[in-house]
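Figure 3 (text version): structure tokens given as input.
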């Protein structure tokens, strides 16, 4: 009986040492660590409004147009480690909203809401540079990106309605949680807030309208790091 007990103790101790060696080995080769090359891909629904503020040329009346609905956001980040768990990256974001609800308001005059045709799409593209920090070991991410954004308005049935704004300032903030599914791959979910401001100029070079977006997204993240 004593021999069996001693044997069990020896085997248990050996297994513990072996497990510690495996953990140390995994840590040395970057197992479940945010270091080196960074790639993050996200997609999901986007909520919020793109607002157009303008001035009628034939009067002094200001007006606003709100384009709202549920769209799709695609988020790509490519970069590398600045220090462990802190990543510097280039970010490209594309937001699409098809057939939005269009609310037109002229203060003290009128307010109307219509549904845009299915052929009409509002696009919002952003390119910038950002930082993502992971809080370990919970693997919670906090990310911020500053860049340049533009709006595009496309009608596939009538190209005369197509237009795009000048480049403006764009930001994205992101908070998420990921789970490791392999040595370097993780999956999770993120909440985003994005804002873009830009101008649309007329043929004379004057500002015809100012556009601003405030949008929230719920994105599925896939990350290699």
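Below: residues designed for each position.
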């Amino acid at each position: 009986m004593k021999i069996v007990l001693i044997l069990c103790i020896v085997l248990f101790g050996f297994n513990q040492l072996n497990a510690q060696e495996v953990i140390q080995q995994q840590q040395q080769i970057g197992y479940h660590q945010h270091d080196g090359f960074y790639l993050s891909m996200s997609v999901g629904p986007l909520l919020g409004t793109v607002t157009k503020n303008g001035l009628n040329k034939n009067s002094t009346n200001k007006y606003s147009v709100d384009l709202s609905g549920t769209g799709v956001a695609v988020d790509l980040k490519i970069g590398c480690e600045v220090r462990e768990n802190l990543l510097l990256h280039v970010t490209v974001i594309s937001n699409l909203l098809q057939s939005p609800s269009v609310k037109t308001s002229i203060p003290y005059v009128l307010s109307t809401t219509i549904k845009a045709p299915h052929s009409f799409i509002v696009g919002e593209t952003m390119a910038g540079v950002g930082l993502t920090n992971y809080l370990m070991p919970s693997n919670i991410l906090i990310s911020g990106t500053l860049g340049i954004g533009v709006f595009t308005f496309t009608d596939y049935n009538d190209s005369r309605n197509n237009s795009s704004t000048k480049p403006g300032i764009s930001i994205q903030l992101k908070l998420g949680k990921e789970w490791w599914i392999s040595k370097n791959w993780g999956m999770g979910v993120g909440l985003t807030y994005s804002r873009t401001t830009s101008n649309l100029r007329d043929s004379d070079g004057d500002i015809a309208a100012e556009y601003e977006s405030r949008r929230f997204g719920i994105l599925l993240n896939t990350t290699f790091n």
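Residues 7-12 have pLDDT under 50 and may be disordered.
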